[in-house]
Design brief:
There is one protein chain. By secondary structure, the protein is an all-alpha fold. Helices cover about 65% and strands about 5% of the residues. The protein has a two-stranded antiparallel ribbon with strand order 1-2. Helix 5 runs parallel beside helix 10 and helix 5 packs antiparallel against helix 11.
Length: about 270
């Protein structure tokens, strides 16, 4: 039981393992459990939730899953993320009295893309036309230009770049799957909140990584294309994880520097 493991870290939560939700989303099950605990008063208003690392260990899930669950609670107005401090309970019940609709979590989505898009890229490497390569190069240039002007437009060029690679496979099934993943990204409220945090942290499409992908496609090298796409999506996942921690890290570093300065003055 999750409740037993949570009790071991000093919490008063005691809930049985929940029935599997219709979606089967693990982060949604964690979010539902925490929301039930908040509604039952097992966390006080203003109380800080256990650290992400502790929750991950208690639920026996990954930190990205906990991050997705906290995003869902944040969207419902149950918690507030205070950078440099933690996640605090701010309401017993969701806005409007019920939980908002959920969708594929941002890290779930990236894991799926990391499984699918490298294979699409490898297939595209042996089928891409010169005209398609020219279009992909134009999109990389557009991303670079828009990065300094309008990141939203840069991200749109990023989307068209990835869909262009899928189309270069000449496989309608691959095109449909990749398009579905990008459509899910666009409609997911969890992804939209995570994207807003990433933009605030300065995360933008990485031109160098897209250039490496393009070079592998130009070389018609499927192994290099697969590796380049996988490396790119791995870095995207890492950037999203860091985006929600960057301010906390900066503040922690500032506190450490202040302490060092204080003790240096005393010495």
């Amino acid at each position: 039981m999750w409740g037993i493991r949570l009790a071991e870290i000093g919490l008063t939560i005691y809930t049985p393992i929940m029935a599997k939700t219709e979606s089967g989303r693990l982060y949604e099950r964690v979010a539902d459990d925490l929301a039930a605990a908040i509604a039952a008063g097992r966390f006080d208003i203003g109380q800080r939730l256990p650290a992400e690392r502790v929750l991950a260990q208690s639920y026996s899930v990954s930190r990205p899953t906990i991050r997705e669950a906290l995003i869902a609670l944040e969207l419902d107005g149950l918690v507030e993320v205070r950078m440099g401090s933690g996640v605090y309970v701010v309401a017993r019940l969701p806005r409007g009295g019920k939980a908002s609709e959920t969708d594929i979590g941002p890290f779930e989505l990236l894991e799926t893309r990391r499984a699918i898009e490298p294979e699409a890229c490898a297939l595209a490497a042996v089928r891409v036309t010169d005209e398609e390569l020219e279009e992909l190069a134009r999109l990389v240039a557009e991303m670079q230009e828009e990065n300094g002007r309008d990141v939203v437009m840069s991200e749109d060029a990023d989307r068209r770049f990835h869909l262009g690679i899928a189309e270069a496979t000449q496989n309608s099934g691959m095109v449909a799957v990749v398009k579905m993943l990008w459509d899910a990204r666009a409609r997911s409220p969890q992804y939209q909140l995570m994207s807003a945090k990433a933009l605030a942290a300065g995360v933008k499409p990485r031109i160098d990584e897209h250039a490496v992908i393009l070079d592998a496609l130009r070389a018609r090298d499927p192994e290099a294309a697969r590796a380049a796409m996988r490396a790119h999506l791995t870095r995207v996942l890492e950037a999203l994880m860091q985006a929600t921690e960057v301010h906390e890290i900066e503040q922690a570093q500032a506190r450490i520097a202040a302490h060092r300065k204080k003790y240096a003055a005393i010495a």
